[in-house]
Amino acid sequence: MSDKTSSPSLAASPSQSFALDTIGRIESDYPDKFGIPRQPGLVRASRASLVLLPPYDDPLTVRGLEDFSHLWLTFVFHRSPARWTPLVRPPRLGGNAKVGVFASRSTHRPNRLGLSLVELMGIDTSRGVRLALRGHDLLDGTPVVDIKPYLPWAESLPEASAGFAPEAPPQRPVAFTPEIEAALASRADGDSLRKLIVQVLAQDPRPAYRNGAEERRYGLRLRDVDVRFRAVELEGGVAMEVVELVQVT
Ligand code: SAM
How far is residue 124's CA from residue 130's CA, in Å, rounded to a whole number? Predict the structure, then answer.
């Protein structure tokens, strides 16, 4: 590459740091990191609220935003360590192969910044500003540092190539025992919680190196329940079976 592009000032100056303000916090269906989908859009049943903080909670800051269906959120992986390494092991590659941190969407990265495209379901400005969101991949409590409307004419590139992650991960079937179906049916949010469980477990949240059926039981938190599940062999292959729902107080 010719060096016409490299300016002497850039080469000389050490990297600069910038202070970022948290403009709002996420309240989401995901109290823990385990089980959160690896990208937005994979679990459309996931709901969240973005509650803006003063002075950003002035309704003027979101005037006109209601006309956009999707938003880019820039946030901080506040529950990831600040340290980073040049190479990371994407789960998509089974947790073995390594790629450059900037060739990945790893949570362990310089500046710990995340970027997610989420669906805007509504805006409540009765007390400050609260954005209702759907299809996200954000832990409860995530600090958000910027919001931008999504521009499909500028940002949707279906023909783009995507390296080691060319398409959405495969989905697993999800099965419920009759007892779990009854427990869900007795809840006021039973329908939406069932959809959320199906879509989250269909991603097979187990560590990447776990592939087949196994006896081991896993537990993941969604809303106020601990969902206990295991991987079983069914006719069509490996499926996720929900075996217990434990109310978490
Ligand atoms: N879409 C974003 C991106 O590309 O920058 C996030 C991708 S990252 C692979 C998604 C994972 O981040 C989730 O599965 C969850 O485990 C983790 N995560 C979400 N919110 C987090 C937070 N506040 N702190 C640390 N990890 C978080």
Answer: 5
* pTM for the predicted model, two decimal places: 0.93
In sequence order, the 6+-apart residues with CB closer than 8 A to the CB of 202 are 171, 172, 173, 174, 240
Ligand 1 mean position to 187 CA, how many Å?
A: 29
Q: How do residues 194-244 score in pLDDT, each as one tens digit?
A: 999 999 999 999 988 888 888 899 999 999 999 999 999 988 899 999 999
pLDDT for res 5:
55
Q: Three-state SS for 159?
A: coil
Q: Which residues line ligand 1 (CB under 6 A)?
A: 33, 36-40, 77-80, 105, 107, 114-116, 137-139, 142
Asked whether the beta carbons of 200 and 137 are under 8 A apart, the reply is no
The two three-digit tokens of residue 79, written as one number: 């529950």
